[in-house]
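Quick one: structure for this chain?
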Amino acid sequence: MTLLALPVVLAQLSQMSMGFVDTFMVAKLGPDALGGVGVGNVVYFFYVVFSFGTLAAVNPMVAHAFGAGDEKEIGRSVAQGLWLALFLTVIGFFIIWNAEAILLLGKQEPQVAALAGEYTKAMSWGMIANLWFSVFRGFCDAVNRTRVAMVISFTAIFFNVVADYALIYGELGMPELGAAGAGYATAFVRWVMLLLILIYVFGTKEFRRYRFLYRARIPRPRYLIKMLKLGLPIGATHSMEHGAFGVTSLLMGTISTIALAAHQVSIMLAAIAFMVPMGVSFAITTRVGQNLGRQDPRAAGLAGWVGIGIGTLFMCVTATIFTLIPDQLATIFTDDPPVVAYATSLLALAGAFQISDGIQVLAIGALRGMKDTARPMVINLISYWLIGIPSGWLLAFKAGLGGQGLWWGLVIGLSVAATLHTLRFRKLMRVQETRVESGE
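Got it. Here's what it folds into:
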């Protein structure tokens, strides 16, 4: 599990580091730009995370087929995943190009909404590349080639730093585009990453037998419907969690620009730590799926619990760090005293939800490997939208806790989700093991 998970984790961290670099460089432009990028990401990544989740169906479908030795099914899953990514991009453009209007409806400050609109429009030019990369990455991870995404992601960091430097500040002969420059830099890097993974996949002799291009010549509605039945609940599951964080960002923007900027700093640091359990969750999906494809539920259960244990242990460490040195962490991004002070109070709370956040995504990864996607979606709906967000709103605006109250809502929602997802995995594994014992 560790050997499979480590490259996935490193790939997640390296991709997240691009967001870290964007935030770090944009922070130099002031609180308005930092807030604009923050709320712009709310709209952009709400949809993109939904799309990633929908396309995540490729991983368990390929993993099951790989475990069963079905080469035709592997090729078909990847090929139709590419068509699905194209359809999702067409819908996404309509949403992303109206980000400013959406944010104004959410009562964001006009200057922040305008910056966010420019930033998201710039990023949208890399959306199809991002989603196609996700499909090929899901394939590579499912056939135990997890180092591919890791190497590409680390290579992309260099391109991201150079592109950000050139386009945000107008260096190296490029125009000075400010916050929008970070969006164009991100789009450029997504195309670089897609090119690199295409070179690997189509240049690897043993992958040619899957005949991706032949099977992708036309979309196949029946197979796409099958993929959507598995993927849409995954997309909804992820977007419900991401949406809860997004709503929290929008509510922060109604408090003040300082609160929004502090939230962006704090959530970026929390997100970096979150990449480790998220990466482990992908490895759990692969191992659980492969073992179930081989009709070995005991090995699948062991893989799930070991992965959950590894990820939880890491989040215990990060929770301790966030609790002990929040002010030092906040100053990584900005030296603006009001922003640092506000972010420090939020980071202390981030330590409280680190463990729950890790456990819930790890358990979801195990359930995804079992192709159990509908129930996790319902659990996230209850945890975040019926419990977490209302709790945060009441604590923030009725109990007078402000931004800290919104973050306590996140703590509550994540804790409920972690508990319910873990109990669900435990129940399903017991059912699987009972079937084996009874000879079914």
